[in-house]
Amino acid sequence: QMWEEAIHICKELAEQYENQVFDYEMLSDILQREAKFYEKILKVLRPSPDYFAVGYYGQGFPTFLRNKVFIYRGKEYERREDFEMQLLSPFPNAEKLKSTAPPGPDITDSPGQCILCARGRGLEGGSVPGNRPPCGNSCSAFYKANHIQRFSYSRPFKRGPNDPDNEFANMWIERTTFTTAYPLPGILRWFVVTSTEMTLISPLENAIETMMKTNEKIMSEINRHQNDPSLPINPLSMLLNGIVDPAVMGGFAKYEKAFFQESYMQEHAEDAGNIEKLKDLIAWQIPLLAEGIRIHGQKVTEDLRPFHERMEKCFEQLRAKVESQYGVREMVS
């Protein structure tokens, strides 16, 4: 499904057929194939590939694997369980590490075999080539998910006293960033990690990242349905309902409870800028939700009309609350 790469080859062949061998029949064929690739880019949903960080620890492994970490590019819709089973099959005596924390000398210097597997994500994919403007969500998503050489894995942990009423205020993220020897996808499905970097993400920074991803996901669904009205609305229904219906996920109320209390603001005065940023992201989510619900109302079937009306009712309550507290934002069409 790397149609962008196929288009480059089509252009090379078209140049040959038109200006070198003058075979207009083959030129016509290759231009039609190129047009179909462009159509697929716009209309076919391509899942972003999963990446796995795999460490082989212990003296029992061959030297080219021993105490090294590799990044694997997963297959389409591959479950982690299936990937791990395939990973362990060449090493039937290997022990799978349950903790994703980096192992100590007791494991790396042991005579046995221990395998650590963690699901990661790609960072800083290639940008859209040339000086052309963004070519739509489907096109830009390809360049973000391919030609990647940096990957990250996030491990949540709690720091400080445990407060059952405010669990997000002390939920930190330990983020490990890996750099591979070559970008993926490549001639192999996996490449060795050449450098590792570790950073700590505060609970508030994690909330900001989550809100940004949620807003981007809503925008992506809106773009998909605007580009192709024939798409089914089930993914859009689940996404919108999970945000606006407090009985499903609770939306961003958990962040308000954790970070917008007067006590938190007094204790963490240095977070004032990030708190305002989080409030701004919450405010911007309202016009995105409004557009998504408008599209949903146009496409919903009669048997799902009561579900849509309940979602609209929940959204109006949410909109009134957010706009009164964080202001009104307007999305340009």
TrEMBL record:
It comes from the Eukaryota. InterPro entries: DOCK, DOCK_C_lobe_A, DOCK_C_lobe_C, DOCKER_dom, DOCKER_Lobe_A, DOCKER_Lobe_B, DOCKER_Lobe_C. Keywords: Guanine-nucleotide releasing factor. GO terms for molecular function: guanyl-nucleotide exchange factor activity; small GTPase binding. Belongs to the DOCK family. PANTHER family: DEDICATOR OF CYTOKINESIS, DEDICATOR OF CYTOKINESIS PROTEIN 2. This is DOCK1 protein.
